[in-house]
């Protein structure tokens, strides 16, 4: 089999050239980073779980009419996605005060916000992904006004859907981040949802206990990261109750099958 050409490697994923023009293979790693990669580690099996969770959420969003880059899941760690030009803006949707918002504004973590808050950050790890305004975005031409309208509208729609999705399984959607890209067709482009949606980029709290079921467990040295990610997958119906969880390591799985 011909060696695939790597296009890009980020903190949590590797992108490879896809089998057809206009496609990319997105590989989910187990690497974990926090505080703009100042803290690094590994969460065993995270890539497998994030691949499955993101596939599930993107599929549901596609069914309600949200355009996404997702085409299909290829295997345990890889997805086939549409190639897009990423808008260099990270969109953060907040329902509850937590993380940097609580620290910067002195709002107690866990405080329900009076309305959903959308923040924009300029995607640049070296600069620490600084918070920017729509004026900055317009001034530097990172996105047009029409594109920003589409992004804001989709972010609110995604938030409404995901709040209901997670509430139904006893999880409070505190906040999450989104990335969008331009899908080009000749000289025309449209904005679609890209990247991933998983416990890596969402704050998810158990509604009854307040237990964190996301990457904050890694950020704050709470431990139990794998179990938290598995719990999210289990509640979403992606891991059968009482089953042998999931295949988190391909080599181990192959050896086990060889012995059966």
From TrEMBL:
GO molecular function, one term: ATP binding
Annotated CDD domains: SAICAR_synt_PurC
Domain SAICAR synthetase/ADE2 N-terminal span(s) in chain numbering: 6-235
Organism superkingdom: Bacteria
Pathway: Purine metabolism; IMP biosynthesis via de novo pathway; 5-amino-1-(5-phospho-D-ribosyl)imidazole-4-carboxamide from 5-amino-1-(5-phospho-D-ribosyl)imidazole-4-carboxylate: step 1/2
EC numbers, comma separated: 6.3.2.6
InterPro entries found in the cross-reference section: SAICAR_synt/ADE2_N, SAICAR_synt_PurC, SAICAR_synth, SAICAR_synthetase, SAICAR_synthetase_CS
Catalytic activity: 5-amino-1-(5-phospho-D-ribosyl)imidazole-4-carboxylate + L-aspartate + ATP = (2S)-2-[5-amino-1-(5-phospho-beta-D-ribosyl)imidazole-4-carboxamido]succinate + ADP + phosphate + 2 H(+)
GO cellular component, one term: cytosol
One GO-annotated biological process of the protein: 'de novo' IMP biosynthetic process
Keyword terms, alphabetized: ATP-binding, Ligase, Nucleotide-binding, Purine biosynthesis
NCBIfam families in the cross-refs: purC
HAMAP family, alphabetized: SAICAR_synth (MF_00137)
Family: Belongs to the SAICAR synthetase family.
Protein's name according to its UniProt entry: Phosphoribosylaminoimidazole-succinocarboxamide synthase
Source organism: Sphingobium quisquiliarum P25
């Amino acid at each position: 089999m011909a060696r695939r050409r790597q296009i890009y490697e980020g903190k949590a994923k590797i992108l490879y050239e896809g089998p057809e023009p206009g496609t990319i293979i997105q590989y989910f790693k187990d690497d974990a980073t926090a505080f703009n990669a100042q803290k690094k580690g590994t969460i065993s099996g995270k890539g497998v779980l994030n691949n499955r969770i993101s596939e599930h959420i993107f599929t549901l969003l596609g069914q309600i009419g949200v355009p996404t880059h997702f085409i299909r899941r290829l295997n345990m760690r890889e997805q086939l996605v549409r190639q897009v030009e990423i808008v260099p803006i990270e969109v953060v949707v907040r329902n509850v005060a937590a993380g940097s918002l609580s620290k910067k504004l002195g709002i107690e973590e866990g405080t329900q916000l009076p309305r959903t808050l959308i923040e924009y950050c300029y995607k640049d790890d070296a600069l620490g992904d600084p918070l920017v305004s729509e004026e900055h975005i317009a001034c530097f031409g990172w996105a047009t006004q029409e594109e920003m309208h589409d992004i804001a509208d989709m972010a609110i729609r995604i938030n409404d859907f995901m709040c209901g999705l997670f509430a139904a399984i006893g999880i409070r959607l505190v906040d999450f981040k989104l990335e969008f890209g331009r899908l080009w067709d000749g000289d025309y482009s449209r904005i679609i949802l890209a990247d991933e949606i998983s416990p890596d980029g969402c704050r998810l709290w158990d509604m009854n206990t307040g237990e964190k079921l996301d990457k904050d467990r890694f950020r704050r040295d709470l431990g139990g990261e794998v179990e938290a990610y598995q719990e999210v997958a289990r509640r979403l119906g992606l891991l059968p109750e009482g089953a042998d969880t999931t295949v988190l390591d391909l080599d181990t799985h192959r050896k086990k099958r060889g012995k059966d």
